[in-house]
Amino acid sequence: xxxxxxxxxxxxxxxxxxxxxxxxxxxxxxxxxxxxxxxxxxxxxxxxxxxxxxxxxxxxxxxxxxxxxxxxxxxxxxxxxxxxxxxxxxxxxxxxxxxxxxxxxxxxxxxxxxxxxxxxxxxxxxxxxxxxxxxxxxxxxxxxxxxxxxxxxxxxxxxxxxxxxxxxxxxxxxxxxxxxxxxxxxxxxxxxxxxxxxxxxxxxxxxxxxxxxxxxxxxx
Amino acid sequence: xxxxxxxxxxxxxxxxxxxxxxxxxxxxxxxxxxxxxxxxxxxxxxxxxxxxxxxxxxxxxxxxxxxxxxxxxxxxxxxxxxxxxxxxxxxxxxxxxxxxxxxxxxxxxxxxxxxxxxxxxxxxxxxxxxxxxxxxxxxxxxxxxxxxxxxxxxxxxxxxxxxxxxxxxxxxxxxxxxxxxxxxxxxxxxxxxxxxxxxxxxxxxxxxxxxxxxxxxxxxxxxxxxxxxxxxxxxxxxxxxxxxxxxxxxxxxxxxxxxxxxxxxxxxxxxxxxxxx
Lengths: 220, 277
Known about the structure:
Chain A is mostly helical. Chain A has helices spanning 2-20, 23-38, 41-51, 58-65, 80-107, 112-120, 125-153, 157-163, 175-185, 189-218. The longest helix of chain A is centred in the C-terminal third of the chain and has 30 residues, at 189-218. Chains A and B meet through helix 1, helix 2, helix 3, helix 5 and helix 7 of A and helix 1, helix 5, helix 6, helix 9 and helix 11 of B.
């Protein structure tokens, strides 16, 4: 699941970037993020398949024009790897806003005194980031990571529709799609249920951290 | 100072690139919806629609079942939100204000259910719904959506309720108000923003939902609008992209509007308490 890693890394980088840009740029970026966030997944899938369309997708055109290579009538869905690539970009695009906005909110809560104290002690930007900012926002980052893992693990709509309901083969199954095709598509409820349980077990292990920290909140 | 200004300029440029990447798909959707077919199918894409046309919107709306399915979605969303709101409000009230046996178990369930990937539950829920002969009915879908929106609503509302000091209610009761009176006059107005945020969220999730709608509703008359949109291109790749984009735009509009209203609160609700300054 490269998705989570990508989403989190990019998310944190963009959040750090937001602290550094001028106010008007920040407002523009936040606006774009919220817009992307609010797109219904099914709609996003349609837009994606239009942009990466075989005949005249705008992505192919832009990449060719930028001199990255000749992508004229390049089929993005010809190999499993590039299918996943497309699904991943779509998911990261949709998942980034939540991470960026939450991390940015957390960053703005880092006490100024701490940063200033570190500066007076002669710490460089990188040191401040690593030893002051990061420890403060760490609990939040952990929660975000486990949430992202859980969400991305169960991802279905994007992968199912973008690759195309007819194009699902054992080679490009994600777990959720395997489950759907086996269980529902071939009305093999028994096997479907078995996959479900496996999947839930994996997610349960992954989400222990999130549940634990939420429980602490709930006990107040 | 000079160096600092140049640094900021650099960051700004990077910021603008991020803006462009995030916003472009949305822009491309809207602009395609307004373009003429000539522009859409040209091998050299045009960045701006030069001849605006509403033909695609007309085509999308006139496709079979568009209005039926919008109506279906609206019905499903309305009932899900209404039921979820009432039930979760009382549940959250109990969680926030009272200690009772099984409270801990209840919290674990509420959080745990939100963690389950919906796909994992497609099969079991389908079997249950089928047993009660609710496949292909909207009430079946509403029931299924409730299993997901309830825990979320309970949890978010609990957060809002906890923020309201107990003393306010007690003061009202000392001044001679009944328990019900204190509830209506003190608690309800204070929690109103929370109720709005929660219902909007329930609205968005059920409007966007696809897997269950796709599983449980299989004919055009009863399906919801997301299934309608997904079916738009069926198996073929020769698609009327203008109409698809027009329909996509139309379907996104209600979500975007509501989303903008409550975006801040949702982010807060999911991670509440994680960062303490």
